[in-house]
Amino acid sequence: SIDSITSENFQLRINPTFEAMTGRDKLKESITITRSVFPDFTVREKEMIILSDTALVVSWVISGTYKNPQD
Questions:
Q1: Whole-angstrom Cα distance, residue 71 to residue 60?
Q2: How many CB atoms lie within 10 A of CB 28?
Q3: pTM of the model as a whole
Q4: How far apart are the C-alpha atoms of 27 and 2, rounded to whole Å?
Q5: Enclosing H/E stretch for 57
Q6: Residuewise pLDDT in 10s, the chain (71 residues)
Q7: How high is the pLDDT of residue 46?
C-alpha cells in the first residue's frame, strides 16, 4: 500500500509548476484522478540512477488512453 512505501511528508511534484503537494492523501488523490481519466494508465521504468543513500533519479515511459470525464 501507499502508506507502507511513503512517509507522512511525502512530496509529489508534477509539471508544469513542480509545486510540492505534501502528504500521502495528496498522492492518493493524484492517483485517483489520473486513473479516472486514463483507465489503462501504465508506467514502465526505463532507467534508474542511484545518486546517494537518500537520492535517486528515475526515467520512465508513461502511456494511457484519455477518457473524457464528461462522457
A1: 29
A2: 14
A3: 0.68
A4: 8
A5: strand 56-63
A6: 899 999 999 998 887 788 888 999 999 999 999 999 999 999 999 999 999 998 889 999 999 999 998 88
A7: 95
All three cell numbers of 18, joined, read 513542480
Task: Give the β-pairing of 56-63 and 21-22.
Answer: unpaired
**Residues 4, 27: Cα–Cα separation, whole Å:** 13
What is the rounded CA–CA span in Å between residue 21 and residue 38?
A: 21
- Going by the DSSP 8-state scheme, the letter that residue 42 receives in this structure is E
Q: How much is the pLDDT for 51?
A: 92
Cα 28 from chain centre: 9
Mode of pairing for the β-strands spanning 42-50 and 21-22: unpaired
Instruction: List 51's β-bridge partners, or say none.
Output: none
Record the cell numbers describing residue 48, joined without a space. Answer: 534508474
